């Protein structure tokens, strides 16, 4: 639901949902994705959390297919060249599964 609101009703997401996600004690991968996408650049804790998955195949394997797609999207937008290359490999592997 949070992802849907992030994509479809950004104004409501920013007013109501974002604050709730920021205040959660245990954030999920998708929570970090949403908060990291909302901040410009990659130098924040949420972006670093998401990008920490891309170089580690075992960590990527803990994500479901939807989360892997979000990881690929995030990395292609905010990753460095090496991370983007790794994201392309993850994308190819995800397509083969």
Please give a handful of descriptors for the protein shown.
7 helices; single chain; mainly alpha
Describe the structure concisely.
The protein has 97 residues and is mainly α. It is 72% helix and 0% strand. α1 (2-8) runs antiparallel to α2 (10-22) and α6 runs antiparallel to α7 (81-96).
Overview of the molecule:
It is a single chain. With 97 residues, the protein is mostly helical. The protein has helices spanning 2-8, 10-22, 29-37, 45-51, 57-60, 65-78, 81-96.
The helix content is over 70%
**Spatial shape:** globular
The fraction of residues assigned to DSSP E strands is under 5%
* Main structural class: mainly alpha
Mean pLDDT: 90
> Which radius of gyration do the C-alpha atoms yield?
13 Å
Low-confidence stretches are none
- Beginning-to-end CA distance, first to last residue: 26 Å
Number of domains: 1
Q: What is the tally of helical segments?
A: 7
Total strands: 0
Helix and strand sequence: HHHHHHH
Largest sheet: none
SSE layout and pairing:
Blueprint: H1 2-8, H2 10-22, H3 29-37, H4 45-51, H5 57-60, H6 65-78, H7 81-96
């Amino acid at each position: 639901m949070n992802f849907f609101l992030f994509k479809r009703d950004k104004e409501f997401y920013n007013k109501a949902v974002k604050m709730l996600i920021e205040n959660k004690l245990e954030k999920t991968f998708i929570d970090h994705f949403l908060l990291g996408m909302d901040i410009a650049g990659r130098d924040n804790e949420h972006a670093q959390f998401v990008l920490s998955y891309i170089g580690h195949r075992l960590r990527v394997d803990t994500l479901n297919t939807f989360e892997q797609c979000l990881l690929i999207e995030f990395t292609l937008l905010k990753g460095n060249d090496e991370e983007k290359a790794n994201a392309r490999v993850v994308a190819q592997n995800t397509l083969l599964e």
